[in-house]
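Friendly challenge for the regulars: who can give me the structure tokens for this chain first? No prize, just bragging rights.
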Amino acid sequence: MDYYISKLKKNHVEAVASLYVDVFSREPWNEKNDFKEIVLYIERMLSLNSNQSFLYTENEQLIGVALGFVKPWYKGEEYILDTFLIHPNYQKNGRGQIFLSEIKINLNKQGIEDIALDTDKNTPAEKFYLRNGFKPNRESVYLFSSTNDNNPL
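First reply, four minutes later:
Bragging rights claimed.
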């Protein structure tokens, strides 16, 4: 299997958005994402000066996407893996593990030692990350709030 890992660029946005909508419309997510909103999300990620987003391709076919960015923290810098997805036809056959491993190698070469992410509990995604070296942080809790007190989440 010949694969290629590259940085996500502006000319990839629509293909990435199509794959995103496809992947997250399926089990267990069952999301009803609007293509234009996902395009905007990806373009916003690309506009970050700390953007570190990657593509996984085989024979010029888009297989996987990792959207993320680097942020400062007390140990130096940390990579926030915001979205990670693999084409449904290529899931559960090691491609996600290969892709994640290549991302870790790339980030480590840059001196970035840690990756943080959040995912839904009791999903295949949680199991995937646990099998690939991620551990729950028992000292933290993930919280969020609306900025509009009149429109609570």
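The domain at 4-131 is CATH 3.40.630.30 (Aminopeptidase). The beta strands are 4-7, 54-58, 61-73, 76-86, 114-116. Your move, everyone else.
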